[in-house]
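For concreteness, we quote verbatim a single protein encoded this way:
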Amino acid sequence: MTSPDKATVAEVAGKVYDKTGREIMIGDVLKVYHFTGARWRKRYFMYKQAMREATLGEGEGKADYFFVSHLNMVTEGQRDDGYYLCRDGSVLADTEIVQGLDWHHDRPRARAAHLTQGDEG
């Protein structure tokens, strides 16, 4: 396997992709796999929303994240027990964009070379 060049690694830094290869952006509603039921092996999902960008850490450990809400409909200023999603160029295999502020089907899909993490050279 060939290692990606520096431009490819820099191009995906600060982005994260759903299972179809589309970039997740602020405002997107995400369908996230939750568990498989014991009876009839039904798959259950949760719905989340990418709310805002955040930078966590200091100095060399600083990284870009999305704050993801659980869609619990809290008013502005109240605490939302969401979570942070690292924007490190990874593909989230159990996450799919189901709705976006713009038409997410028109977003270009990332090529396989752009979805490779790290520099193995």
Remarks:
- DSSP finds one helix and five strands in the chain.
- The longest strand covers residues 43-56.
- The longest helix spans residues 6-12.
- The mean pLDDT is 79.
